[in-house]
Design goal:
Blueprint (H helix, E strand, L loop, with lengths): L8 E2 L22 E9 L2 E15 L4 E7 L8 E4 L4 E3 L5 H14 L9 E3 L3 E3 L5 E3 L8
Parallel strand pairs: 1-7
Antiparallel strand pairs: 2-3, 2-6, 2-7, 3-4, 4-5, 8-9
């Protein structure tokens, strides 16, 4: 097994799938384990694994979102995210598996290096702890 670099290389890459993904708030429940896909690592998709905690309004989209907890802590243990950003890890969900496979088909051929850790640059966190996708950024925010 090859060693991955400690910090990802930020490689802005268009995300043609997530902004158009139609996931309702009800698709996820408190207690679900999810991942927010962020890029490619070692020839596979990678992201931040989190636990869905409670409903929360997602200000960047003005829609119902979820409060997420990162069990590993870090700079910010809790964030709020829109459901379309999330993929189930805790169960084999057909909708999430379809999205995961489509993301693999779109991204893995672009980054075939098994030793690369690529952050596609899709997400940032606002000052109030809201995870926001680059396609959801509004003028003035």
């Amino acid at each position: 097994m090859s060693q991955l670099p400690p910090d990802p290389v930020v490689a802005p890459t268009p995300d043609p799938l997530t902004p158009h993904r139609d996931m309702t708030h009800a698709h996820f429940q408190a207690g679900d384990t999810v991942v927010v896909l962020k890029g490619v690592a070692g020839g596979e998709l990678w992201g931040d694994a989190m636990r869905v905690v409670a409903p929360s309004w997602h200000l960047p989209t003005d829609e119902a979102g979820w409060r997420l907890r990162d069990a590993t802590g870090g700079q910010q243990s809790y964030i709020t995210a829109h459901p379309r950003y999330l993929v189930h890890l805790s169960r084999r969900c057909p909708d999430c598996l379809i999205h995961l496979r489509a993301m693999e088909e779109a991204l893995l051929p672009k980054y075939p290096d098994d030793n690369a850790l690529i952050d596609c640059g899709w997400y940032s966190t606002t000052a109030v702890g809201q995870l926001v996708h680059v396609a959801d950024v509004r003028a003035g925010r």
